[in-house]
Amino acid sequence: MNRLILVFLIFSSGVFAQHHPIAFATKSELGYVSKSISNNFLFKESYSAIKKDVDSFLTKDIDVPFPKDPAGGYTHDQHKFLYTLMFNSGTLYQITGEKKYAELVKKIFLKYAVLNPTLKNHPQATSAYAGRLFWQALNDANWLVYTGMAFDCIHDYLTPAERSLISNGAFKPIVEYFTHDQKMWFNLIHNHAVWACAGVGIVGIATDNEDYINMALYGTEKDGKAGFLAQLNGLFSPDGFYHEGPYYTRYALLPFYLFANAINNVRPALKIFSYRNSILKKALEVALNQTNISGEFYSYNDALKDKTYLTNEIVVAVDIACQVYGVDSSLLAISKFQNRVILNKGGVDISNALNSNKSKQLQYKYHSAEYTDGANGDFGGLSIMRNGKDNNFTSLIYKYTSHGLSHGHYDKLNIQMYDNGNEILQDYGAARFINIEHKWGGRYLPETNAYAQQTIAHNTITVDETSHYNGKENVAELNHPNKLFGKIGEYKVQYMSVEDTSAYKDVIMHRTNFLIKLPGLNKPLVVDIFKTTSTSTHQYDLPFNYLGTLMKTNFKYQYASNSLSTLGNKNGYQFLWKEASAKNVAPFTQFTFLNHSTFYTISSLVNDSVDVFFTRIGANDSNFNLRRDPSYILRTKGQNQTYINVVEPHGNFSAVSEIASQSFSNIQMIKKIQDDDDYTIAEITVQGKKLLVVQANKNFSQLSSHEIKQINIKFTGPVYVEFDGSTIQ
Prior knowledge:
Layout: H1 2-11, H2 27-36, H3 41-55, H4 74-96, H5 99-115, H6 137-154, H7 160-181, H8 183-186, H9 191-206, H10 210-218, H11 228-234, H12 246-266, H13 275-289, H14 312-325, H15 329-338, H16 345-356, E1 369-372, E2 381-389, E3 392-400, E4 414-419, E5 422-425, H17 446-452, E6 462-463, H18 473-476, E7 482-487, E8 493-504, E9 507-516, E10 525-534, E11 538-544, E12 549-553, E13 558-559, E14 576-585, E15 588-595, E16 598-605, E17 610-617, E18 630-638, E19 641-650, E20 652-654, E21 659-661, E22 667-675, E23 679-686, E24 689-696, E25 705-708, E26 713-716, E27 719-723, E28 726-727
Antiparallel strand pairs: 1-2, 2-3, 3-4, 4-5, 6-11, 7-8, 8-9, 9-10, 10-19, 11-18, 12-15, 13-14, 14-17, 15-16, 16-19, 17-18, 20-21, 22-23, 23-24, 24-27, 25-26, 27-28
Helix pairs in contact: 2-4, 3-4, 4-5, 4-6, 5-6, 5-7, 6-7, 6-9, 9-10, 9-12, 12-13, 12-14, 14-15, 14-16
């Protein structure tokens, strides 16, 4: 904190003066860009696409409408379109020197200078954080970011009177609304406030307003407790893991990188790109490593599926990162897939590098990783275990993070699985059709809270049909699971063991996930040991929200042929139809399904017997807001329960040749050799051979020695894995 105050005091003295443009790029940088347009194909294509789009509006009368529509409506989309058009046109003015581009930006700004002072809260606002031009203030912050850079580009084209008119008419009403009426929102540690700080700060740089810049950097009170630097301190763990999850990392990286770039130009002594050991570099790397091979971000928390690193936010972040930190092969591979660059020096550098590496196979290098959560890295975390080569690999994501602010879900110790780029065990993500007016005005649907955030929508245990923390965000925000032990990396056996003592008052949950590559199997096995401990009897539901088509079970079930009923009446259960069920199934169960061309079998062992439910989303969803996805749910009742599950990819089905190979599971039996306070020992029969998985339940030190005379083994550390008589690790 003292450091922040010291930096502020240094920069608050003296006369504020600068040359324009400087927010998006400097004059000399844009001169370099201008000279580079014809040098290589990708940059020229990116430039030409922007120029063609802007040129089509040069002679048109641009409508700047009075705001009235929700997300996806005409006025919403028009204002969103306009801020992009203004920024692109301003950039073209700097690159080409042609006044027609500056004139277009000025004409639109003069209309906003008349409109914005007349605006009150948006008529479609549904929260306390209403916007003026848009239904939520967040979108107004987007508008400030882009139009601030546009103003900076045409700053010297405008007369002093025009600059004053636009500054006071177009910008001041929104900036004052943010920093006075919405002060609490502006000072939040949240992705909304990142955009707000970036918008106010960039406008401050563009209009030579030092007060705006200091509020953006240090909060409205300028004490460092809020503002851009506080966001960098509070939203990222030391690893670069972003508190709200990868979907929102993607969204926040654009204002983080754009404002950091502007600050780097204006206040280089801050060394913003080196801040917190280059936290922005780490943040981008962590975000990209949390994507599937098709570039889709992992969909936990309030995430929308199909959002990829092709999105504009990641294009901007990658290009600025390459300019600041240098072009490396991983980012170059991403840029090649993006197939476009922004019109800055980083875009030129990337284009030059791609031009020089035409003959090379560029591929982003995914890797196993463990990330801590929380500003100090002590609020849980997330592990990604991967095994395979190139694009043919299996990924297991184990989520034991903190809640994730208002976009978090109630899903401690949740897992997801991807294989060959296909989602196998899914996280539902968020219920939303973004910017589609028909669906709740493009906002988050009520089913996000009612179903998608609830625990039963996730691959973790729900106790007594009640979500973790009883679905209360203010309680969830204060708690997190605790890592017990783990080993993540390029190993034949990867594992992570985590305990949660706070999601339920009377239940301790302890889950250990292994990703094990065995000789003789093409794909790794997921071995999942999930233990619950309680002093009372409870109902435990463990779902596997799978994607695929049921092929086979080793038990008989009753299909609901005449009428459907719901699995429950609250906490997400009310949305699940019971399509089939089986009662008191023998402890060893198997369920096989087909996803794309691969078979997957979930083999399970529970303490005694288990009730099984095949469910499908869709009950009580009269507006068809939710996907009709299936789930396979194991239910037990008791005090202390231990589930041992093996998720096995196997075989192949070719629709072309109509041949199925290895369609039956290689897992023949699961036995529990020991399960007490000291150890849990699972014996899994794989193709007639014994896989022994041992985990310590008390002494987790990597240096501790263990001897289990019952099975005649000695080992060091919390885990021992043996296959066919040989230790593997």
